[in-house]
Amino acid sequence: MWPLVAGNIVLEATGRPRKPFHYVDKGIMAMIGRNAAVAEVGLQRRHLHGVIASVTWLGVHLALLTNMRAKIEALIEWGWDYFARTRSNPILDRVEQANIDWTSGQEDVLTPVGESVRRAS
């Protein structure tokens, strides 16, 4: 896909007509938890759930990894997490969310990392 996009940018910049782009929807997949996933795949939008959807999700994501080393490392990490029942640290794009005290009965106001201000109820 990216070479086509880059080529179209070059064609556009040089005043030549662009090549047509056709989007191919490969489906929807979501891993929900341990042995729990949902997927809609194929032209007929087949619905998958449970273990079969989890295995499908793993297979698709392994296939999309770029090289054999990355695939082997992912398999080892996934296997370790699955059989050891461990959880890795989540990757957060909003660090302040990691500082919410979920055990309190009061609503927190998000502030910079390390600080928490309680709202009066």
Low-confidence stretches: none
By DSSP (H or I, 4+ residues per run), the number of helices equals: 3
Question: Helix coverage percent of residues?
Answer: 25-40%
Order of helices and strands: HEEEHHEE
β-strand number: 5
Give Rg in angstroms.
22 Å
- Mean of residue pLDDT values: 79
Number of domains: 2
Description:
By secondary structure, this protein is an alpha+beta fold. The chain has 2 domains: 83 residues, no CATH class; 31 residues, no CATH class. The chain has 3 helices and 5 strands, in the order αβββααββ. The strands form 2 sheets. A 3-stranded antiparallel sheet has the order 1-2-3, covered by helices on one side. β2 and β3 form a beta hairpin. The longest helix is centred in the middle third of the chain and has 17 residues. The radius of gyration is 22 Å and the shape is extended. The mean pLDDT is 79.
Question: Would you kindly provide a brief summary of this structure?
Answer:
With 121 residues, the protein is α+β, with helices and mostly antiparallel strands. It has two domains: 2-84, no CATH class; 91-121, no CATH class.
List the helices and strands and how they pair.
Layout lengths: L1 H12 L14 E6 L2 E6 L4 E4 L1 H14 L3 H17 L23 E3 L5 E3 L3
Antiparallel strand pairs: 1-2, 2-3, 4-5
Summary tags:
three-stranded antiparallel β-sheet, 121 residues, two-stranded antiparallel ribbon, alpha+beta, extended
